[in-house]
Amino acid sequence: MGYIGAHGVAALRRYKYSGEDHSFVAKYVLQPFWSRFVNVFPLWMPFSSTKMGSCCPWVTPILVSGCDALACAFESLAFGSTAMCGRNTFWLWVIAAIPFYGATWEHYFTNSLILPTINGPTEGLMLIYLSHFFTAFVGAEWWAQPFGKSLPFLSWVPFLKDVAMSSAVMLLMTAFGVIPTVAFNVFNVYKVVRARKGSMLLALAMLCPFAVLLGGVLMWDYLSPSDLIKNYPHLVVTGSGLAFGFLVGRMILAHLCDEPKGLKTGMCMSLFYLPFAIANALTARLGGGVPVFGEGFVLVGYVIYTGALYLHFATSVIEEMKNSLGIHCFRNDVFSHFRTSAAFK
């Protein structure tokens, strides 16, 4: 099964990456640091593809964003274990995945990845890393106890004082991080669609696969007698994270290959396993609480299916790109390397 056609190959050759990062931390701290730190290494160390200019502009969105999509799941699992979040580990992943998908969706329509002043790749990851270090000093139980006990000087805050600290943080992240970011994404897409006299319904339709993924997993958990999100959070998040990675990767590929705007039915391949899983859980409701297949085995199958699908997608796209564009993956022509080395002397 091919992912890139002749039109896609022509679009790849024309593609130019565009992005903006308005983060003050990135602008005034990280970028100056890396600009100076890079001088520690000798000039001959960069990849020869970088020197030769053969590092294609689509490498950043499809490689980096693809890895970041998977990182949403793995970092949610890591922090969920650190903070003893239990079933809330799944919701940590949801909180990370929603703005990530929204940013990818916005990039698809605006042709530019715009990171706001406070964004996930910079401030979000920085806060997570600091939280890991902070937990080493206060202990994981700090996140499990009530908000009012963890932060006594804020015990007067209504609605939060009796909520677990980890849950309170998630609520605050949703209110002040996720919702404003998604609103920002929708507003930017609306401006572009209106300027091009397109259909906002077609634009919103591209959000359906992700909504179906979340809805399907929640329906599976609701029908299952095993309380999947509580008892098997690692398998649920890993399988859903791999399915999410496929959705993001497929949308990025559609952007790079200049495919028509609207719902991509190929994205739904990552959702094919969910009807079977939901039907199996439903048999437990109808058959005295015992499903036809054990939920543990079905969950492992979910991870295997989504993992195999994502692996097939990643390897196939890489193979098609390098064959269509006449380039290598992870290596360069020896003679070109020698010519480049001579030119740098």
TrEMBL record:
Signal peptide: none annotated. GO terms for molecular function: transferase activity. The chain crosses the membrane at residues 90-114, 126-144, 164-187, 199-220, 232-253, 265-286, 292-313. One of its GO terms (cellular component) is membrane. GO terms for biological process: lipid biosynthetic process. The keyword Lipoprotein does not apply. Keywords: Membrane, Transferase, Transmembrane, Transmembrane helix. It is found in: Membrane. It comes from the Eukaryota. Belongs to the CDP-alcohol phosphatidyltransferase class-I family. This is Choline/ethanolaminephosphotransferase 1-like.
